[in-house]
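Schema walk-through. Below, the input block comes first and the output block second. Nothing else is stored per chain. Lengths vary across the set, and this one has 295 residues.
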Amino acid sequence: MKPTRLFKAINSKHSLKFCFLFLVIILFTSNSTAIPKTNTKEVIKRGVKIKYYTKGEFYEYELYAKVDDKEYKIDVPECALLNIIEQTDFNLDGIDDILVEIGYGGNNKGLSYFFVTYDGNGLFHVTDEFGNEEVRENPKIENWNGIPSVSIIEVNAGMCIEEHHKYQKRYILEHGEAIRVEFKKIEELPAIKEVRHTDFSDDNNKIITMKYDINNDGIEEQFLVRYWERWSSVLFELIIKGTKYSCHLGCSRVGILPTTTNGYHDIVADLDRIYKWNGKTYACDNYELEIIGVR
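--- output ---
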């Protein structure tokens, strides 16, 4: 049993030494200043003020940001025109990001977009572009599963020389990249009657008359549809009670829908662009058919 007592005694001496060293370390470190560990994002979230804006002599082709009153120029793809669509916290990390539109001018060019994020210390990150020559409508910023998203429409309108298609795509900003999270094909709305650009394949100069009682007054209204050779599309005029209304936007087809607004049948252009009667004329979004006179 004595060896056992000796072993315990030895361990006891080592324990005393260890405790003494531990107390010395504590006393030494208590007089030093502790340095907290923080990352860049934590520092940024403490109240950084950031504002994005563009500059340019003829076009807005340079992108800048001011962070706490210090200006930075951001390296972006070379293009003719930059337009900041939205500044908001797209990835919900507590720091504002931006969605930027790239335009190249002209009505035969599409639109592309990219996100810009601030990584701290004057560093910015630009995502890859999304969109293409078939994007011509303004994007929509919408809530998607609790986070901001960007919805764009791709459509091969314009030159109606191939089968018409239209897609809706949705993107979010995640891990510093533009991620597509949704893809949907837009289907064509069925019409009661319609005239298509392909109906002019035998004669580009003819005018096709489409008749239908669009306001249920017992009298058939007339659509005068003609071919627009430049864009391989159609234009139309509508005569209601002797008044002529003109549409100057080319489309692949014009048709009459079964739905009504204010007692008048809705009109469809292309796949799903709907014109509705507003009491004065037919309108779609901010565009109205022009009233050009009484026949």
